[in-house]
Amino acid sequence: MPVLQRPPVRNLALRAYASLVFGVMSVWRSYVTEEMQLSGMEHVPDAGPVLWMFKHESWHDVANIPLLWQKAGAPLFKSPSRRKYFPSHVLSEASRIALSPIMYEMHRTWLGEGTSEEEREAMREENRAALSALRENYERGFHILMAPEGSTISDGHITNVRPGAWHLSRLQRDNGIEVVRCAPIGLTYDFLSGRRRFGRKQHLVFANLGESFIPDTEQDADGFRERLRQDFISLSTMTCSMLAGDYLARSERVDEKELEELVAARATALDGMMDIDRGLLDPGKRARRVRHFYSAAEELGYVNGGSVVHERLALIPENPDWKHENVLRYTLNRLEDILAARPDVAKVIR
Length: 350
Description:
The protein is of the alpha/beta class. The chain has helices at 9-32, 61-71, 89-99, 117-139, 164-168, 221-234, 240-249, 256-270, 283-299, 310-313, 322-325, 327-341, 343-349, and strands spanning 33-39, 51-54, 77-82, 103-106, 143-146, 170-173, 176-179, 182-190, 196-197, 200-201, 203-209, 303-304, 307-308. The mean pLDDT is 88.
């Protein structure tokens, strides 16, 4: 497996530049994230390079992933990334230039980019060139950091893992295929239980590193994608919004005190069974999380005068932006994936 030898000046400069960029991102993180919990750090591989693949939960991942990168030892890496970050052309170009030393741009033709088949084919060719460049950097000892879903557009279910990660996990050799060590990272957001600060709702973010693995050389793209989907489900974190939201969805009336007692009992029962928001085991933090959740549920119309508004919870957005149009249903869809994969957890909750 490729390993970086004595770091040349160029690599030292690149590491310093990545630290600078991610330092700026940390300022953004303090604005959008109230708290970030890291689990599974014992699974950080002793040696690299590694293909790191994280569950793409939010556009704000770019603000939160840098903390994980720093705690993992700040390895040299390259990353495939979307081409356009902002509606503003000026901001998009500025971000593209700033990130170009560590990022390779990828077109997302599966999301409708390109106005003609000819243009889309040209975009796909550029994507293939970017994948080749990423492989070349891996051969030089660089880690690869990527979001294999390629988009945050989702209803909460984990279903849209793209085949790009499978392609990057395989290196063509004269004597066959060499596979790359892969490390999955589960990301879970609690969009409802964070505090309101700077005029906006802050998130609670949970990153859970799984054990790295060497893929089977005979495994096809579909098998690899399903393996990764199952990893993302198993590396999910149980949040206050999941526990309180599930009870809310199956009730006619709720109150804050009732929710807090229920969340306390369920969190205690789940401790040791799966990754949970550890703040739920602290009475003070748990009370604040439940209070923030209940306030958000009232503000967003899920609860009215103590009565659950099931019509609001059943709302299907006209656009794919579930996290803004029906964030509680989005959260509960993620929970459904967890419960389907973990019957033991389902018994505790239901």
